[in-house]
Amino acid sequence: MIKHKKAQWPWHGLTALVLVGLAVALFYATSLISYEWRWNRVPQYFAYQAEDVQRAAGNGTVEAVDAQGKMARVTLKDEDGDQQVLSVAQDSVRVSQGDDVSEGDPVGVTRHWAAGPLAWGLWATVWISVVSGVIGLFIGLVAGLCRLSSNPTLRDLSTVYVELVRGTPLLVQLFIFYFFIGTVLNLSREFAGVAALSLFTGAYVAEIVRAGVQSIARGQGEAARSLGLSAGQSMRHVILPQAFKRVLPPLAGQFISLVKDTSLVSVISITELTKSGREAITTSFSTFEIWFCVAALYLLINLPLSHLASRLERRLAQSD
Predict the structure, then answer these.
(1) Residue 47 β-bridge partners
(2) pTM greater than the 0.85 cutoff
(3) H or E element at residue 49
(4) Which is deepest, 88, 189, 228, 229, by most CB within 10 Å?
(5) How far, in Å, CA of 205 to CA of 312, rounded?
């Protein structure tokens, strides 16, 4: 019998219809509160043209103002006869030939593109996530293996660490690191934030590693030992590579959660993406637009990470 594959397009069409319905519902909800959308205010929070004021270095006169396209070349001559040449935007020139100027008087401005607060907030979120993730992975690997150790001290200490961190909120841990440990050891807020996120992530990674190693059949380690490998070599070359394939999905999920958890470091005055969004709202009064952009930026980080983890998982599955 020939099995006919069911058409999938009706279900995709239903998905599109649901999404359109949600968009219409959102638009209707905002119309009920008479919200005025101002998307034109958003781009400046990603990139804008910054202005640097050019000032006279001393008392003197304006010797010449020469237009050069969109720029102007302003030549100043001080009381000692020394010349100062400034290149400023043509539409910003504030002096004319023959004018007297004093030290510090503005002559014009130069413009250049600069990153806005949302761009800087995105960068802060990315580097905090990467650094905390790498350190947390190392801590979790060590703590996870310690939980499987035959040494009671290592096993007990790792258990206390995991249960203590997993049993308390990350927000409380951030406050403890910043206001107590950070004050005593004179740590910066960035160091305190990364340390708290690393230890928090490491506790969950430790449980993932422990579960992954325990899921490998005991015979794998016994076979490796019979081939002359030591316990450390057996773990490093036989057990951990197999366990990594099994723990990749929960590890990816943990790191995606870490990216979102970085929003909590704003409570200790680290200007990451969420704090940048709040600051942008106070100046733009575009509440919905900014929060939608912030959510989209978090998706911009997490969706590629999730896709990469899925591809790596499929590749590792094919190598079995």
Answers:
(1) 115
(2) no
(3) strand 47-55
(4) 88
(5) 18
Work out the average pLDDT over 256-268: 91
Structure token digits, residue 123: 């960068």
Going by pLDDT thresholds of 50, 70 and 90, the confidence category of residue 27 is confident
pLDDT at 141: 92
Residue 74 dihedral angles phi and psi, to the nearest 5°: -105, 125
Position 231: which residue type?
Answer: A
- CA–CA separation, 134 and 38 (whole Å): 39
What is the set of domains in the chain, with CATH numbers? 52-112 (2.40.50.100), 117-318 (1.10.3720.10)
Instruction: Give the type of residue at 182.
Output: G
What count of Cα atoms within 13 Å lies in the side-chain half-sphere of residue 266?
17
Residues in the chain: 320
Which value, in Å, is the radius of gyration of the alpha carbons in the chain?
Answer: 30
Element (H, E) at 310: helix 287-318
Nearest one of 117, 164, 121, 167 to 280, comparing CA atoms: 117
CA dist 217 and 75 (Å) reads 81
Which of 55, 101, 98, 61 lies closest to 77 in space, CA to CA?
A: 61
Read off φ and ψ for residue 195, nearest 5 degrees: -65, -45
- Number of C-beta neighbours around residue 10 at 10 A: 9
